[in-house]
Amino acid sequence: MLMKLLKPLFFITDLGFIVYWLVTIFHRIPDSAAFKDYDNPIIVAWNWSFFPLDILISITGLYSLYLQKKKRPAWRSYALISLILTFCSGLQAIAFWGFSRDFDVTWWAFNLYLMIYPLFFIRYFIEKDPSEPKANGLPVSR
């Protein structure tokens, strides 16, 4: 049941990152919706430092969905990578705003979502596959 939610959450998150960065590239975020000090060059650089991470999240997440559709077991590894990176992206933003004592409910909500939703799924991907052959309790290389 829980895993049925993963596909739409991946789509929402991964496409959301792509849309966010396109909107950012073309300067389409209204000043009223921008986070504090959005025009400060240091904050702009901080924000852009997330670009490679966020795009990697989208690539691994969407690729995992492609592999899952093709019934390739590697989808699980790409999904786990995407989930962990998503958590880290949200954590870094929340930590920054927390340390700088900046609270904007909209930006916090988006980034808390990025931190929290992966936690429901990561366990599923790190549990051992019960069908995996084992020797002395450890997985055997195939």
Task: Explain what this protein looks like in three dimensions.
By secondary structure, the protein is mainly alpha-helical. 65% of the residues lie in helices and 3% in strands. It has one domain. It is elongated. β1 and β2 form a beta hairpin. α3 runs antiparallel to α4 and α4 runs antiparallel to α6. The protein has a two-stranded antiparallel ribbon with strand order 1-2. Keywords: Membrane, Transmembrane, Transmembrane helix. InterPro entries: Uncharacterised_YvaD.
DSSP E strands, number: 2
Low-confidence stretches: none
Rg, Å, rounded: 18 Å
Strand order of the largest sheet: 1-2
Tell me the domain tally. Answer: 1
Largest sheet: 2 strands, antiparallel
Span between termini: 30 Å
Shape: elongated
Estimated share of beta-strand residues: under 5%
